[in-house]
Amino acid sequence: MLPANNNIKDMRVKMITLWINDKQYQAAEGQSVLQVALDNGIEIPHLCYHESLSSQGSCRLCLVEVTKGSKTIMTTSCTYPAMEGIKVQTDTLEIKKARRLVMELLLPLAPDAPKIKALASELGVTEPRLGPEPENDNCIKCGLCVRACDELVGAHAITFAGRGVARTVEPPYDEEAENCIGCGTCVQVCPTECIVMEDQGMERRIDKWKRTLKLKACKNCGRPFITFAEIDFMQTKAKNPPPEEWFDYCPDCR
Amino acid sequence: MHRLTSVEELEKVREKILKEKSTIKTCITICLGTGCHAYDSQTVYETLQNEIAAHNLEEEIELKPTGCHGFCEQGPIIVLYPGEICYCRVKPENVKDIIEMTVLENKIIEDLLYEDPVSGNKFEKESEIPFYKDQNRLILGKNSSINPQNINDYLAEGGYRSLAKVLTGMAPEQVIDKIKKANLRGRGGGGFPAGVKWETTRNAPEKKKYVIVNADEGDPGAYMDRSLLEGNPHLILEGLAIGAYAIGADEGFVYVRQEYPLALENLSTAIGQAEKLGLLGENILGTGFNFKVKIKRGAGAFVSGESSALVSAIEGKVGEPRPKHINTAVSGIYGKPSNLNNVETWANVPVIIEKGVDWYSGIGNENNKGTKIFSLVGKINNTGLVEVPMGTPLRKIIYELGGGIPGGKKFKAVQTGGPSGGCLPESHLDAPVDFDHLKDLGSMMGSGGMIVMDEDNCMVDVAKYFMHFLKDESCGKCVSCREGTKKMYEILEAITEGKGKEEDLLLLEEIAWVTTNASLCALGGTAANPVLSTLKYFRDEYEAHIKEKRCPAKVCKALITYVIDQEKCTGCGLCQTLCPEKAIEGEKEAPMTIDAQKCSRCGICLEACRFEAINVTS
Questions:
Q1: Which CATH architecture describes the domain B365-454?
Q2: ipTM
Q3: Which end of chain B is more exposed for a tag (fewer CB within 10 A), N or C?
Q4: Prediction pTM value
Q5: Among all residues of chain A, which has the CA nearest to that of B474?
């Protein structure tokens, strides 16, 4: 698994030269080919990639052709590290065909998600041949939520469960996600909006993780704005935790 | 016995064991491998123990439980030495006769000998039975003479001599050179040259290195590695230790499925015994070479047999494949160079060291040296494990060793390479079975599964079966594999239910293409083979299902009807009594009829009818 690209940039590693669509580019060694392309304004479709997270390569949309030495392979650009001298093609006929077919397989999982719909029509999937998955809750199992919770938040509240077609994202043992602090990072990164977080009165609910949390109200405006669990988490886990009073006021009233 | 501190001591111990064995008059071996065990060979074994005691013959007879001999169709198998008299399908009630007639009076019990189903000939000696005669049992052979729980048996057969030879007389580079020259290719399916892989791991910069035995055998119907682990665990350990020395590893793992209890038991015993004798552990045979072996138990995920997934599993993580821009030979367990080979590959190593490259190279064909073990199953007379030189034609394996198709049925296809292998038709039966030829034909060698199918198998149904397996066994990470196998399964299911559309074939081919090309690991990369190979060789069957709503093999329930031949039916009423759906109508003594609406096509009536009056139409 490639580490998050943000981390690589920070490490100031060796610079290398690679070719993308017959043009030469400089990149930090070990950065993903996808990130190098994006940094240079070359669009490669992707759903399970985020520059602040490690790459998993599960959506398979960022496929490219990489030639290293005499060997050319089709591979996901988010997991392929930038190496000296490699030649990357991002838009060959085969690549376009593969992306279109991958999207045909993806679309039935989240046929109504705006981002997926838009990308599908961009990739040429105009008349889907495969019907929607009636049982599915729009989750495409890209794992951005799991990685965000593990790597950015550090709460480790949710995980993959099951294998093959039974693969799902769940709280451990499919019981209330006790480690979930209700921060909503998973909601932010989800490309299909399948994680719903709702505040009702003094409670925050994320039904997908079977989680209900108590909210704290702003001392000034009275609006509930943060969970007690998140305050606790920040106080105990943050390197330089803010003083407790910081959480007395909502961001608008601070 | 104490820890051996030199090769001389090992040889002394060996002499002592051989001397003790030379006084034994009769040896009775009985297979307690998984196949025979299922036929209750354990009870036969215990009955033998009691009978020997009852005749006060404990001193004269050595009763030896062994691993799988290979001819599982005929189990439980016992072989009596000297004479190599082989008795098949032995039951506890036969034991008294075996001791009293064969052991004490030297008389053969004809009824227990193997009878060839084609010629009717009977065979006394195990090695003369056609199933064994044309095999070259380089690796599997010692299974029939070794008690896997007793290291002395392995030592009596020359065991650990190759390790001793390597440790005292060969530099690591020389060992690698030998394995490279022997052109030993990975028996797990990839066929990658083992020596090249060893060299890569040896030359990798990190000092700490690992060697791994991949015993995560998971193909339906395949049990070669299981039988080797159960029957001759020291052979694998010796090969692994030789590899560790050549590579520069001091630690090894055997990744075995939890579902192989006997393999786990025998392997643990073997490791314990080898450590006690100083053949594993610290300062092996006083040479200064240290090598420790640990068992890691797998939880039954097929995908964990993929090298990077297996490495993850050993590290205690979920067995999911990782991208291999740097392969496991360079960066494996905890990022250290890790050389992974399959059970059978490791088992070949001591043989190559013992017999030499020239001898080994004489077996097999140009690019495929040595033998390969196949588990020959399905519609075949002689079910079991066969070991043949690489390059042996499929026809020879199926018709000569396997004894052909039962019931005079017509051969239709052979599926090689496990669930992601391909189905090859009659026209390719003369193809040599090796890594390269099978791949060219759209199938693969895999780890050695060989499933034979006859005219009663529907190839669309077969493809559906394998896709069902693969959709559940995909790790689910890549969309192309997870959703691809699922969609292929759903389309195949619709076709077998008579709901197929003509455009489905193009859709199937496209999904197969993207599953093959867009997935990360070899599971996804080969998952479409059952679909692609059946589409290639049996397209007419797909078309019959789709265009004519007909299943030519009369398998797919939605497309077949059971009818009673009014002229043959005597009205005996047996089918009527047995039918679980109460679908058979009519009065006794007069021809009956089947209500197609009620009939669930279970086939009970067909099996029960004594007058062949029930027909299946499609």
A1: Roll (3.10)
A2: 0.94
A3: N
A4: 0.92
A5: A164
